[in-house]
Design a protein that fits this description.
Layout (H helix, E strand, L loop, with lengths): L3 E7 L8 E7 L2 E7 L17 H4 L2 H7 L5 E3 L6 E3 L2 H19 L4 E5 L5 H15 L4 E3 L6 H11 L10 H4 L2 E5 L3 H4 L1 H13 L4 E5 L5 H4 L3 E3 L6 H14 L5 H7 E2 L1 H7 L5 H8 L3 H12 L11 E5 L1 H4 L4 H14 L9 E4 L6 H6 L6 E2 L3 E2 L3 H11 L12 H9 L5 E5 L3 H4 L3 H10 L2 E6 L12 E4 L8 E4 L4 E5 L12 H12 L18 H11 L12 H6 L2 E2 L26 E2 L18 E6 L26 E3 L1 H6 L7 E5 L4 E8 L7 E5 L7 E2 L30 E8 L4 E9 L1 H14 L5 E9 L3 E10 L5 H10 L8 E5 L4 E10 L2 E11 L4 H9 L8 H4 L16 E3 L4 E2 H8 L6 H12 L9 H12 L1
Helix pairs in contact: 2-26, 3-22, 4-22, 4-23, 5-16, 10-13, 10-14, 10-16, 19-21, 31-32
């Protein structure tokens, strides 16, 4: 028997940076637990982190992984395998030829906040040191670049000054543009802990929607999209009028106050109400709590702000950030326990990418590209004559340049821009026009892979060695629990091998010693560490061996063994004179305003149980339960006005494109708002336009307008119109499938989605019970019978075995496959084409594995109702233990006591809310509803 091994590592999802314990046996990851010794999570994991082992199942990996280099002879053709040496030689020669013909700036590298710091470092050195171009950018540009620009403009350095421990020490939490209950769940557990330990804790949430985070708030400021600066200026005016500012701190530790104080006089309570929709009383209350002036306390109480994409993903993202930091500076809420502006990073290593300078306008260790002295320092460190001075193309600019024919070769690593970038029409033009596209990834299933000329297989979580840095500047080790499968290589190794082949082909670099002498991630770490000497993020006091024992925060200069938890405790900032800067900004508006033609505001965001483009989290059946298919959520009154019922299909159209999606009523939305999750790319939400062009998912709607300082695009908001779709012919199918087939079948169904005006494809089931795939499609009229047969064949509904009904003249088909059991018959697979109204009762029949024997005849009758009731579970609430809404509602009818007692009865009886805790806010809402 093979012994089980436990490996300490770090979760690859959000920027909280949770430690995990990976159990493995015989080269297979068998279990993942939270690391009780890791200071980011102390053993807790969210629904995504706790199911990581299910993403690593070999049966699943074999269907979705990129396991050897592949090359296409022509775009759209088959990708054929080739050896690593051939792939590396081909890429090296192709880059060399591009540089020789068009110059180094004809190459663009687009990388990812999911890379490890060591991967990031070699990519950055490859572009700026070897090639001599600054055309390298990262998807962190979409995530945190406004936070970077905001910190630098006010505090002098890209360094979050607070830490997670400050949550427990704050008297007020100001959460703006963030929904940590869903996006950073383990951080939200700390917020819940802080509220329990200190019932007097004030929580303010600024968000257009009433989210699970807002449910916990003492004050929810439901501001209009794009009005953040108006709100902060209004709060600052209140502080000024009420003498809640800190004049001594302002006079001795800051610059620029007079200009800002004069500007905010225009932010009267009436103006704030007009622009933000915030009542004057709520504005005054928010200002008082933020300033630390609370009833019964004569001393100033600490305020911690937590913020994320709602501030950053804006055409005024930098202004949003600096206006919030202005509030901290005005009342001295920085540099002490429980106080400060703490931006929450969206990706596991967005911070690491910032540290190594892997943005088009940065250099290693937070150096300034525009500073000749900084460029000289980096060139000397790398051993090259120089690094280029002109800023490179940021993410949107890079793809615009490729679409315009300026960038000829794109190398994309560990990210999926054909899903995640805004204005997908532009992105797809770029991928089609670029002469050569390289995709380096662990997964072969992303939309971008369809555009690649060369695909390079990379290792992924559970197989990699290196480091990541979380939102509180804490560096953690990532360790391999199992070997990478087949021919998958570490990202740093791929880049290093290409660089070794390319360097002799570049005349101005060929005579230099090898620029990439690395034999492992530790060697890269040591070079990165040296690059930080004397910088604000100095980590020369940290060795690889020290990181083996425990995570550490930066800065940690030589001679110290522990990093600083909080920055600026001496009130000396990272500016030339040590004073923080007040940033003076005029209030802006959304870049894509609503008007008569586009009267609704689309808001985008995350789901509780999914991650980014679903390439990893989408492999886990359990994680589809909370949101089983792509939908657009709307306010009920807007749906009534537009004649939309739940489940109806509607066109969502912006100034850039359209998507077609089911709609449902969304709790927490006001009239005029539509919410759609960022996760829905064309891999799961598809179809084709009337011209046959494949629809591109939610980011067909979003705008590429961006902040002029940070170049971060306004992904959070777009103006749209919604129109009911008249697609009377439908198709719906579900099937239980072997684990060894379900992902492959889902991909084959995905390839067929473009045959319909609308289609979506997703998973259902639970890992311990089985895996299933579901397809929903609609059309103006019946599709060709051969297409229905192809779908039926993929779901095992071909031949004489299944029950079958066919009326080709009316476009009606029915297929059902049943399996005999000791208690009757179970429905294993079903397909309805034409009239799909029976989906409502057939879905629970199949998913709950009820006895289908009494319902055989009804299965084949279009529009038939079941002769006996079919019990449905309702929407899933707790993904960890599989508890659904109807079960909870039924138990609540028998619960007694107050809200806390009833919640505990739910936990004791059903175990919901006892694992990761992500469902607790929803459980609390259901308890309150039962009390009402």
């Amino acid at each position: 028997m093979t012994a089980s091994t436990t490996t300490r590592s770090t979760c690859p999802y959000c920027g909280v940076g949770c430690g995990v314990l990976i159990d493995s046996e015989g080269g297979r990851i068998t279990r993942v637990r939270g690391d009780p010794e890791h200071p980011a999570n102390f053993g807790r994991l969210c629904s995504k982190g706790s199911t990581l082992h299910l993403t690593a199942r070999p049966e699943v990996q074999a269907q979705v992984r990129l396991l050897q280099p592949l090359q296409r002879a022509q775009r759209g053709g088959a990708a054929l395998p080739l050896a690593w040496d051939q792939a590396l030689d081909t890429l090296g020669q192709r880059i060399a030829a591009t540089v020789q013909q068009h110059g180094a700036d004809a190459v663009g590298l687009y990388v990812s906040g999911q890379l490890l710091t060591e991967d990031y470092y070699v990519f950055n050195k490859f572009a700026k040191g070897l090639l001599g171009t600054n055309n390298i950018d990262t998807n962190s540009r979409l995530c945190m670049s406004s936070a970077v620009a905001g910190y630098k403009a006010t505090l002098g350095a890209d360094a979050p000054p607070a830490c997670y421990d400050d949550i427990a020490q704050a008297a007020t939490l100001f959460i703006s543009g963030a929904n940590p209950a869903w996006a950073h769940p383990i951080l939200f557990r700390r917020i819940e802990d802080a509220r329990r330990a200190n019932p007097a804790l004030k929580i303010i949430v600024c968000d257009p929607r009433r989210t699970d985070t807002a449910e916990l708030a003492d004050l929810h400021l439901a501001l209009q999209p794009g009005s953040d600066v108006w709100l902060y200026h209004g709060m600052l005016r209140c502080m000024l009028e009420q003498s809640w500012i800190d004049p001594q701190f302002i006079a001795t530790r800051t610059q620029g106050w007079m200009g800002l104080a004069a500007l905010v006089t225009q932010a009267t309570p009436e103006a704030v109400q007009q622009h933000c929709g915030i009542a004057p009383g709520d504005l005054l209350r928010a200002a008082r709590w933020f300033a630390g002036v609370q009833d019964g306390n004569s001393t100033r109480q600490p305020t911690l702000s937590l913020y994320c994409q709602g501030l950053n993903q804006s055409a005024h993202g930098t202004d949003n950030n600096t206006a919030l930091i202005n509030l901290h500076l005005a009342c001295g809420q920085i540099g002490k326990p429980g106080a400060g502006p703490l931006s929450l990073t969206g990706q596991p290593n967005a911070m690491g990418g910032r540290e190594v300078g892997a943005l088009a306008n940065q250099l290693s260790a937070h150096r300034n590209l525009a500073d000749a002295r900084h460029r000289a320092e980096v060139a000397a460190l790398w051993g090259v004559p120089s690094v280029p001075a002109a800023p490179g193309k940021a993410a949107i600019e890079m793809f615009q340049a490729a679409a315009d024919g300026q960038i000829k070769l794109l190398w994309i690593a560990c990210t999926n821009p054909a899903h995640s970038l805004p204005d997908q029409a532009l992105v797809r033009r770029a991928l089609q026009r670029a002469e050569y596209v390289v995709v380096q990834d662990a997964y072969a299933t992303g939309a971008t892979a369809r555009f690649a000329d060369l695909l390079l297989p990379a290792s992924t979580w559970g197989e990699k060695e290196g480091t990541v840095t979380n939102s509180e500047r804490r560096i953690s080790r990532v360790r391999a629990a199992v070997p990478a499968p087949d021919l998958a290589w570490a990202d740093w190794r791929i880049v290093t091998e290409v660089a070794r082949r390319l360097q002799p082909q570049l005349p101005d670099r060929a005579h230099l010693p090898s620029l990439f002498p690395y034999d492992g991630p530790e060697a890269i770490w040591n070079e990165h560490r040296e690059s930080t000497r004397g910088r604000d993020l100095d980590i020369t006091g940290l060795s690889w061996a020290q990181l083996e024992t425990a995570p550490r925060q930066w800065p940690c200069p030589e001679g110290q063994s522990q990093g600083l938890a909080r920055l600026y405790t001496n009130q000396h900032f990272a500016t030339p004179d040590g004073r923080a800067r007040f940033a003076v900004q005029l209030p802006g508006t959304v870049a894509d305003p609503i008007d008569a033609r586009h009267p609704l505001a689309l808001l985008t965001g995350r789901l509780r149980d999914q991650w980014h483009g679903l390439s990893r989290s989408g492999l886990v059946e359990n994680l589809w339960a909370h949101a089983s298919e792509p939908v657009a959520q709307m306010a009920r009154e807007d749906m009534d006005r537009l004649g939309l019922a739940p489940g109806d299909l509607a066109y969502l159209t912006s100034r850039r494109g359209s998507v077609l999606a089911p709609v449902q009523a969304g709790e927490g939305l006001r009239s005029g708002q539509v919410f759609m999750a960022m996760h829905w790319g064309d891999e799961v939400l598809g179809g084709a336009s009337s011209t046959g062009k494949r629809l591109a998912g939610v980011n067909a709607l979003t705008t590429a307008a961006r902040c002029p300082q940070s170049l971060q695009p306004e992904l959070k908001h777009a103006a749209i119109k919604v129109l009911k779709a008249e697609l009377p012919w439908g198709l719906w199918a579900q099937a239980w499938l072997p684990l060894t087939q379900v992902q492959r079948v889902r991909q084959q169904l995905e390839a067929l989605m473009a045959e319909f005006p609308f289609a979506s494809c997703s998973l259902f089931g639970r890992a311990e019970q089985g895996s299933g795939v579901q397809l929903r499609a609609a059309a103006h009229h019946a599709v060709d019978e051969a297409l229905v047969e192809r779908i039926a064949t993929l779901l095992g509904l071909q031949g004489a075995g299944p029950l079958s009904y066919r009326d080709a003249r009316r476009g009606q088909w029915r297929r059902a496959r049943l399996q005999a059991t000791d208690n009757g018959q179970r429905l294993q697979a079903v397909l309805l084409a034409g009239d799909v109204s029976a989906q409502a009762w057939i879905a629970p029949l199949l998913q709950e594995r009820h006895d289908a024997q009494p319902l055989r005849r009804a299965l084949l009758q279009p529009g038939a109702q079941p002769p006996v009731p079919v019990a449905a579970r309702g929407a899933s609430v707790c993904s960890c233990v599989g508890v659904a809404e109807n079960t909870i509602t039924a138990l609540l009818q028998h619960c007694t006591g107050d809200a806390a007692q009833r919640l505990q009865q739910l936990k004791d009886t059903l175990r919901c809310g006892t694992q990761c805790g992500s469902c607790v806010p929803q459980l609390q809402r259901m308890v309150q509803a039962s009390l009402a």
